[in-house]
Amino acid sequence: MIKIDKIIESISSFLKERFEHMKGDIIEKISSIISKLISFFILFLIFLFTIGFASLTLAKYINSMLDSDFSGYGIISAFYLIVFIVLYKLFKTGKLKKAIESEMRRGLKG
């Protein structure tokens, strides 16, 4: 009986240590993923502001070139509408989803 108790105790302690090790690995991976997501969100937000102000600047420049008050804004809006339509068609065919999924898998591995 003593040997069985020692075997059970050693298996139990081994499993506890293994669980703690796995728990630490999981916490490390989750914190890594969260920090990557936060970093990506901050960079994406800055990128959106940059695109927005660059679009306004370009629209204002086109307005001055065309000697118009609104043509530049219309041209830039049409450009974004075309980009939206292309992305929408990619979404409907499933190509956009596949591209995003493969990019996320590659990002999470690295």
Can I get a quick summary?
94% of the residues lie in helices and 0% in strands. By secondary structure, the protein is an all-alpha fold.
How would you describe what is shown here?
The protein is mostly helical and 110 residues long. The protein has one domain. Helices cover 94% and strands 0% of the residues. The protein is built from three helices and no strands. It has helices at 2-66, 71-93, 95-109. The chain is elongated. The mean pLDDT is 89.
Helix-strand layout with pairing:
Blueprint: H1 2-66, H2 71-93, H3 95-109
Helix pairs in contact: 1-2
What is the mean predicted local confidence, pLDDT?
89
Overall number of strands? 0
The sequence of SSEs as H and E is: HHH
* Count of individual helical segments: 3
Sheet with the most strands?
Answer: none
CA radius of gyration: 27 Å
Given as residue ranges, the uncertain stretches (5+ residues, pLDDT < 50) are none
Measured between the Cα atoms of the first and last residue, the distance is: 50 Å
How would the global form be characterised?
elongated
- Global structural class: mainly alpha
User: How many distinct folded domains?
Assistant: 1
β content, as a range? under 5%
Assign a percent range to the helix content: over 70%
